[in-house]
Design a protein that fits this description.
heterodimer; A: about 260 residues; alpha/beta; Rossmann fold; six-stranded mixed β-sheet; 10 helices; B: about 575 residues; mainly alpha; 23 helices; globular
Chain lengths: ~260, ~575
Amino acid sequence: MTLELRNVSKRFPGILAVDNVSFQARAGEITGYLGPNGSGKSTTMKMITGLIETTAGEVFFDGRPIRGDLLAFKQRMGYVPEEPYLYSHLSGLEYLIMVGQLRDLPAKPTAGRIDGLLRLLSLHSDRHVPISSYSKGMRQKVLLSAALLHNPDLLLLDEPFSGLDVATSLVLRGLIQELATRGKVVLFSSHELDTVERVCSHVVILHRGQVVADDSIGRLRTLMSLPTLEEIFSQLAVEQDTAAVSREIADLIRG
Amino acid sequence: MNTQLQFRVLYRQFLFRLMDVEWLSASARGDASGLLGQFGSLLIFGSVGLSWAAIAVGDEARRAATVAPVWAAERFMVSLTMLVVGVFALLNWDSTFPDRADVLVLAPLPVRGRALLAAKIAAAASALGLTVAALNSLAGFAWPMALAPAGSGLVGTLRFVAAFWITLVAAGAFPYCAVLGVQAAAAQLPRRWYLRASSVLQIAAFIVFLGVTLFQPSLNTAAALGAPENQRTLSWLPSYWFTGLLSELSGAFSAEAHAVMAPLAWRAVLSLAAAILVAGGAFLLSYFRTLRKIVEEPDVVPGSRGGIWLPRFGNSPQTALTQFAIRTLLRSRQHRAILAFYLGAGFAIVAVYLDGARDMMHLTWMDIVGRVNGLMLVATLLILCASWLGTRTVFSLPLDLRANWLFRVTPAPGGAASLAAARRALLALSVFPVVAASAALLLWFWPWKPAAEHLLILGLLGSLLTDISLRGFRKIPFTCSYLPGKSKVHMVFWFGIVPAVMVIHKLGGLEQRAMASPRNYWEIILILGAGALAARMVTNMSANRSQPEIQYEESASDELILLGLNG
């Protein structure tokens, strides 16, 4: 089972957001998808989910183009978006039940699964409270539960650790690794390079919409003779002299 | 720190935020002017209608040669202004106090509390003033000129115009201050309880405004206004106080009129002053406490213990979409307020219709409700239409466009499957409550057979209207963006209101006659049933023929081509 992007591009009016991107994310491994702000990571994620269409190229899952049967593909995909936008007038429980129904999951086992997820993620006592009162971390837990509810074959995680407390972050990190060992395809986008380095076996680095690295972290370290992912990332995708910019900002606000 | 500049910046922000641009489609490019234009044109259209009425009433008043029609007309305008302002104040309930985002954004900034308070009040008052001005843009001149006593001359007429506008402003300020006072008093509660009480208070106030406007007695002669047995009633009816104020300010009537109007005018002045003082004091007191509470306490109504149970509506995805629509309407204050507006208009039409018929036919309310008659048939049909139209209208207004990604990434069904969900939601939210309420009322007062016969007709008509209004609907209710000018349902509503009432009146008469003959009745049932079935088939065929994908973004229709010449 593989997620594959072949020469995928996305052009918005006046800007080429994603430029001829190709890579593969295989079952059993966690693929890190990295890039600075505006590099096209979230746009790629949205093209994979079918939220936006590609301008060129094709996305394949399990050897078949996803556009051939988008509904069937969506049934096998779980997605945690970058921004935790939820229908906040619903309670956490109502939201998850609705997701289960939209996915046409059998009611009884799904109810048990929802109950279990809410307990394990410490949301059970707040399950009847409207999402509008949830903290960012609680919303993130609802998103995560919704993405896992149907035991997806492909998990797309866009900044999944955002807002999570330390304990839940550790649970999530372990969970991602566990799911990968159980044969899921996991594509994981994050700015937290330490986490990516610990969790991912394989990384794709995007810069200005183009892939500038696509390899295992170990091979990249060897090839580039750099000890950490942060240094590899800085060399490939950071154009600024960050120390100089920091100094300039401090000087600027001094007046 | 420039407080004036802060006030100006905040005032502009708060004023423009009264219109929610996040509802708008990308085609509208964040420009709310279309929406404002629609709202303004509705009010101006209302003003044109009122001006026509002024001409007719003026003629009648001159022919009658008594003050009764003039006083009735003046009180009508005062009542209407009080109702519009009262409803406006209720709709803007949420924007009186800063919301959580306001406080969290503004609290860390060196913004003076008084600038924030003044900007909020000024923004709400500006919007209110513009609403009243638009509603009276023509009527505010047509009515005083039509009602000014013959021989007033230019000065007398101008005085009447001035008195008319002063009275309308004062009459508008009274319910506004009353709502503000109630809100300020409620704001003393813990924030979560204040939020919960808000919904109840809004609905209660809406019923009070509507009930008082529609069901206040008609006392239009000096004798009736001066009668001791009516004084207790008059002490509870502000529209009479402000009609008295108008009479006193215009100085147009006799000593006899002055004798009954002067006490009413004084009551208007004193109650307005009291309302301003109480509301202002309570509001100031609660405002700064509220700012702290907004930050300290969760901005959410406490959840119910076990959630709300809803039945299944077809298969799982259809159940999800239908339950989503029902929960959204039940919990979204904005959508409920718009629906309440349509229902309020429906009840107002019914009340005017029944009241007119009661006067003409010399009936009591018990005659109308307690006996099998055409008036109740028409009344329930009118309410059904108002409920259906209001619910269908709010279906087109989105709740939170940013949260729609959920439906896009799950295999939410399109075509006839999502149409079935929308249909069930519309039936459950608009037709079922009217049929259930009618059943409770009619089965209580009427024999079961005519009641059941009418309920069957109501149900079939509801089904027919539902399918007609969902033809070409490729959306999940509350999830598609709104493009001002695309949907013309509100315009059709206002322009078609009189013909619709006439058609429904005819239908009610037809139904009443048919109920006397089983053969005729079943013919009507057959026709309605066949119509409902045909409408459903056509709507389903259209859903399956058109693209099965669900529409989340409203776009300009093909006949409208934007050239974009301004770059």
